[in-house]
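Our working data are protein records whose layout never changes between entries. Getting from the letters to the tokens is the skill we practise here. To make this concrete, we reproduce a full record directly below:
***
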Amino acid sequence: MPLVAKIAKKLTNYRDPHSFASRRRSKRIGPLLKMIEGIYAVNGAVKILDVGGTEIYWNIVPPEFLDSMNVQITILNLPGVKMPGDHGRFRFAVGDGCNLREFEDNSFDIVHSNSVLEHVGEYERMVQFAREISRIAPRYFVQTPNFWFPVEPHCMVPFFHWLPEPLRISLVLRFNLGHWTMASSVQIAVQTVQSARLLSRTLMCSLFPDGKLVKERFLGFPKSLIVIRDRM
């Protein structure tokens, strides 16, 4: 299991643009870049809200592209998440993606969210999150890991998310697993296991009925699910 943790950290080093995960992300966002180009052609600028994102994530996009498209990015995270002060194209905000009351309808051109939906909580919270995403902008790009991909993306253990919850809790209590360190108590183990609820295609489509579903594949298997809405 320690070997699994080391491999996971190496493969998902997002600070390294050449890492496996960074290269996958760069390929994934092709439709988002086309969306940005379309908005810039009409408005001369592009305002993006990144819900639950990081500044590092945007290193997958060449800075000259963002400059040429006059892209402004607001990154929103929950209270307690350490964020820098506003600088350059980046603005930082505190809020809950399930209740974005601080923003009016269509406050942005695009709402972007990468690997966040699976962390917001139970189904009712997912519905609230999807509703807010749809309200804040006419266009969205939302990605989440696919439940039916055999490797759980957070602990990097094959079939882990298909195991009964008590067994998953037991494993988290005994090993470092991918991005998860070994839990020091049952409470922490339960919180860790329940912190990621992977979605299926059916559930994703029910949350975003007006979006186009795109499957990101790896070795022929649908690894991630992406919903895209592009309204002008």
Remarks:
- The chain has one domain: 14-149+196-229.
- The mean pLDDT is 91.
- Residues 46 and 71 are 5 Å apart (CA to CA).
